[in-house]
Design brief:
alpha/beta; Rossmann fold; Dehydroquinate synthase-like, alpha domain; six-stranded parallel sheet
């Protein structure tokens, strides 16, 4: 028996940014975004159509930390005008931050309680959220959780509740056309990881697998072409569609071992999330070369009948994008790698994995 549920209303297409006027309506809105000039211009476009924001959080940093989020929540609570809806305009860090700020409303204590493993307090109700991703990779616009980093404690936490699904997601590929190469690669690889992680996953089902296969096959075809032609609107649109499909896949399964491994790699070694969760994909695929059932069938739809050969080609794909494939390439020695694998296996995402981490070893690249 399996279930699948995703309540997010999705609007996709070039120019769909303008649909926010209808989605927001007359509600007072809080805007969460980045401080950079392109986002300021988009904020001005919003204000022209919707009126001034009830508040704006512009200082979102990559991998949002709980201390910064608490400070931002305090700014919102101190405002005289209470927002009725939150608009997240940016990449994964913005959307995750917006979920936390929507959840905190005017009381960050609820977030602290939930991050500490306790249930939502009585009467807790997050503000509704509209997510507008400007990268093709995070999938956070269709999930009900947010990653929160606690650098003081040296750990990563997850705020996870069904009420945190965005009310709506607006995916406008035109907003992604100015993405630089490095961000295009890292977010695209994050989406690929979401797709594959949803397949070698104990929670996989036919619906998530269908989304995952479409997403992975598209990314493997489109991402190298997009890197070579970053201004191509059709390629941008196809990557945005693939990222959304990957989001719909892992929204029903959560991630698995690659993401569990990635968190200490990012926290301790400063590796960008998209790279940290993708450099292990070939070794994981190789370890599942004999997989059968739903995962085996779906992986063979993507990589062909011999998954060992497919793992080598996946390694070649990553190598062609400049991704290094061995833990040592990221300053991780053998002893630390063993500790990371042990920690990853014990974590909730690691327990989603259908294979065994004892079989994870770097794979040599093959020509695609």
């Amino acid at each position: 028996m399996w279930t699948y549920h995703n309540p997010v209303a999705m609007t996709f297409g070039a120019g769909s940014f303008d649909s926010l006027e209808t989605l927001v309506g007359q509600r007072r809105y809080l805007l969460v975004t980045y401080p950079d000039a392109p986002f300021a211009a988009l904020a001005d476009r919003l204000a022209q159509r919707l009126g001034p924001a009830a508040g704006t959080i512009r200082d979102v940093a990559p991998n949002p930390d709980i201390a910064d989020l608490a400070r931002q929540a305090g700014q919102i609570a101190a405002s005289e005008t209470r927002p009725e809806v939150v608009i997240a305009l940016g990449g994964g860090s913005v959307i995750d931050s917006a979920k936390v700020l929507a959840a905190s409303a005017q009381d960050f204590g609820a977030v602290r309680s939930m991050l500490g493993g306790r249930g939502a307090p009585d009467g807790w109700q997050p503000l509704p959220l509209i997510a507008v991703p400007t990268t093709a990779g995070t999938g956070s616009e269709v999930t009900c959780w947010a990653t929160v980093w606690d650098r003081e404690a040296g750990t990563k936490r997850s705020l996870d509740h069904p009420a945190l699904y965005p009310e709506a997601a607006v995916i406008d590929p035109d907003l992604m056309r100015s993405m630089p190469r490095a961000l295009t690669v890292s977010t695209g690889l994050d989406a690929l990881s979401h797709a594959l992680e949803s397949l070698w996953n104990r929670n996989a089902n036919p619906v998530t697998a269908t989304h995952a296969v479409v997403a992975a096959r598209t990314i493997l075809e489109v991402l190298p072409a997009l890197v070579a032609a970053p201004d191509d609107p059709e390629l941008r649109s196809r990557m945005a569609e693939a990222s959304l499909a990957a989001g719909l896949a892992f929204s029903g399964t959560r991630t698995a071992i690659a993401h569990s491994i990635s968190y200490p790699v990012t926290l301790r070694h400063g590796v960008t999330h998209g790279l940290a969760c993708s450099f292990t994909l070939p070794m994981i695929l190789h370890s599942l070369a004999d997989a059968d059932g739903l995962a085996g069938r779906a992986l063979r739809e993507i990589f062909g009948p011999d998954l060992r050969v497919g793992a080598g080609r996946l390694a070649g794909f990553l190598d062609g994008l400049g991704v290094r494939l061995a833990p040592a390439d990221y300053g991780i020695d053998a002893a630390e790698w063993d500790r990371i694998l042990a920690e990853a296996t014990d974590g909730p995402r690691g327990r989603n994995f259908i294979g065994a981490t004892t079989r994870l070893h770097p794979v040599s690249p093959l020509a695609a």
